[in-house]
Amino acid sequence: MKKIDIQNAPISAGSNYPEPFAIPWLDKVRYRLAIAAGLKKLGVNLLELNPGAWSSQRHWHTHTDEFIYVIEGEVVLVTQGSEEVLRAGDCAGFPEGEANGHHLQNRTKCEPWSLKSARRGSQMTRPTTRTSTCMRQRPDTPTRAARRTEAGCG
């Protein structure tokens, strides 16, 4: 077993949704930890949402469970018909096949960290059709620590 260098893990940034559905989640970064570890069947992503960003459009998985754990900061979990705040140490799970669309929103001025885990390559159901384009370059932004200090996030 080897330690994963998170800062050099493959990332997925931006959106692969068509306009105008892409706009709310253009400003997010997923550090692809499972890929960095060489895992083939499990997806684990460290998700960073900039202020105002969404994790995705609301969706659910037809053939895999999904688990979310908030490491730092605060996000709003939006599901069908409800919203609730998740803070550091909170978690949520979504059983496969349960048609309860969900996503995370950052409504704060700080950038939360959360872990999302599901089987890789799982079928998802979303309100729109995805396009095949996706930004896959590391965003050219100040360091996370610098942004947190500037925003007054402890």
Write up this protein.
- This protein is globular.
- Residues 123-141 have low confidence and may be disordered.
- It has a six-stranded antiparallel beta sheet with strand order 1-2-3-10-5-8.
- The protein is mainly beta and 154 residues long.
- It has helices spanning 33-36, 144-151, and strands spanning 11-13, 28-32, 42-49, 60-61, 66-72, 74-79, 82-87, 91-94, 102-105, 113-119, 124-125.
- The longest helix has 8 residues, at 144-151.
Structural class: mainly beta
**CATH H level, superfamily name:** Jelly Rolls
Oligomer: single chain
Instruction: Indicate the radius of gyration in whole angstroms.
Output: 15 Å
Shape: globular
CATH hierarchy class name: Mainly Beta
N-to-C SSE string, H for helix and E for strand? EEHEEEEEEEEEH
> How many H/I helical runs?
2
Number of domains: 1
- What share of the residues does DSSP label as strand, in percent? 35-45%
Largest sheet: 6 strands, antiparallel
The average pLDDT is: 79
Helix percent band = under 10%
What is the CATH architecture assignment?
A: Sandwich
Detail the poorly predicted runs.
Answer: 123-141
Biggest β-sheet: strands ordered side by side in the sheet:
1-2-3-10-5-8
